[in-house]
Amino acid sequence: MDIAATSPVPIRTKVIAQIVLGVVMVASWEAAAVWFIDPFWIGKPSAIAARLWTEFVDGDMIGHTGITLFHAVTGLVLSLVIGVPIGVLFALRPFVADTVEPYFLGFYSLPRVALAPLFILWFGIGSISKIMMAFSMVVFIVILNTHEGLRGVDRDLVDMLKSMRAKRLYMLRKVLLPSIVPWVFASVRIGVGLALVGAVIGELLGANRGLGWYVEHSAGRVDIIGVFSGLVVLAVLGMALNEVVKAIESRFTEGRY
Questions:
Q1: Which of 52, 84, 211, 243 is within CB 3.0–4.6 Å of 68 for a Cys-Cys bond?
Q2: Helix axes 211-220, 224-256, angle to 10 degrees
Q3: Where is average pLDDT lowest: 34-48, 159-173, 197-211?
Q4: Is pLDDT above 60 for 2?
Q5: Residue 237 domain flag
């Protein structure tokens, strides 16, 4: 079977299938909570929906969501601003990459959860510690993907431009940077979830607002509906951010290639 020859699924069909799958999952969850498992342990979609309505209309859920979104997106953008140039440097200067690699991989292997208390000690319980947590979760992915994208550049094309005495800046702008665009967007797609995780971890350990704080506060009161409400908002936020990134990537690549 020729995979390349298969026609793409129409957007309408895809959206309908996604909606049907979501309805089936929620209905199964509701049925399990009614007939099979105590809702105390798994929550109940109808109760979660009622709680979310109350929290968004009369409570502070919009504020908590906005705070977590700010922490995650700021950390994600900061990781791109710092990670892409470092990845380019590693690709253009192999000696630098080989020298730094053992230490880079050592820092990359550190569990971020273990760094969270240190970030709170360094940066306090305000927004900076949460942003740095999100940043630390994503920046290594950006560096590695950027480096790998530049390593995959067509060497014959680079050699041809060198033989034509093309300037390094021209090659960087016309060949090297366009080649890493898919890799950068792949980093962002992965980084959305990681940035949210980093922001929530920071809010769990030291905060008085945000979705991480809301989940921890609900768990401390043994409020399972509150816990699942915060988790549902986080899941929806992650899906929404991924769709935004996909839309930007589609527009960017269509206009460029």
A1: 211
A2: 160
A3: 159-173
A4: no
A5: yes
Mean pLDDT score across all residues of the chain: 81
- Model confidence, pTM: 0.81
- Geometric angle at alpha carbon 238, from 249 and 253, rounded to 5°: 5
What is the amino acid identity at position 241?
L
Range of the domain at 101: 58-256
52 inside domain? no
SS3 content of the chain, % helix, strand, coil (to 5): 85, 0, 15
Q: Is 70 exposed, middle or buried (0-12, 13-18, 19+ CB in 10 A)?
A: middle
d(CA 80, CA 83): 5
Could you report how far apart the first and last alpha carbons of the chain are, in Å?
A: 27
Residue 29 falls inside a structural domain: no
Number of domains in the chain: 1
Residues 6+ apart with CB under 8 A from 183: 145, 146, 148, 149
Q: What number is the average pLDDT over the span 194-209?
A: 85
Nearest residue to 234 (alpha-carbon basis) of 76, 46, 68, 116: 68
In-domain check, residue 47: no
**Residue 80's domain is classified under what CATH number?**
1.10.3720.10
Which of 127, 112, 109 has the alpha carbon at shortest distance from 72? 127
Of 73-77, 80-84, 108-112, 226-230, the poorest mean pLDDT is in 108-112
